[in-house]
Specification:
This protein is an all-alpha fold. The protein has a single domain (about 5-70, about 80-165), classed as Ferritin, CATH 1.20.1260. About 75% of the residues lie in helices and about 0% in strands. The protein is built from five helices and no strands. The protein has helices at about 5-30, 40-65, 85-110, 115-145, 150-160. The structure holds MU-OXO-diiron.
Length: about 170
């Protein structure tokens, strides 16, 4: 049984995934005008695309279960950042917030005995583990790098290799 409560929680998650896509799109646009970080820029654009896929997956699921997926209004995200480190700190904070919200959906699925939605949400649970781990890894590297431009050069060179995580499928 797909309850109204479950549907509302998943629609809220649609909004959060859409907002995530906006947040990372803004990071990508900002990164694109910073010199010499083409791969970090590509990372943010790709991450934004993945969040849109997460949103679409939810929209299809809600509609397939007989509900109605609501396309939400979005807020303007932060447009600029004091540094690349600040952008990645915000990314980690945002992913932790997304994880909390997914966990809330899982709680509702269990309390409603909606095992189909519970099963569907396990993909998001696994995805959040990967995304938080990746964000922490990059933040740790940036902490080590400090103000060393050579370190930032290497992070930009390697970031697309370390970031082969969930592809949103
Ligand atoms: Fe779809 Fe990164 O949360």
């Amino acid at each position: 049984m797909f309850s109204k409560k479950m549907q509302d929680a998943l629609n809220e998650q649609v909004k959060i995934e859409a907002q995530s896509s906006q947040v990372y799109l803004a990071m990508a646009s900002w990164a694109e005008i910073q010199p010499g970080i083409d791969n970090i820029t590509a990372f943010f654009y790709r991450h934004s695309d993945e969040e849109r896929m997460h949103m679409l997956k939810l929209i299809h699921f809600i509609n397939e279960r007989g509900g109605f997926a609501v396309v939400p209004p979005l807020e303007q995200p932060h447009l600029t950042f004091p540094s690349i480190k600040h952008a990645f700190q915000e990314l980690l904070k945002h992913e932790m917030y997304v994880s909390e919200s997914i966990n809330n959906c899982v709680d509702i699925a269990l309390s409603e005995k909606d095992y189909a939605t519970h099963n569907f949400l396990q993909w998001y649970v696994a995805e959040q583990i990967e995304e938080e781990a990746l964000a922490r890894t990059i933040n740790d590297k940036l902490e080590l790098i400090g103000d060393d431009k050579g370190g930032l050069y290497l992070l930009d060179r390697d970031i697309l290799q370390v970031s082969v995580v969930g592809n949103g499928q």
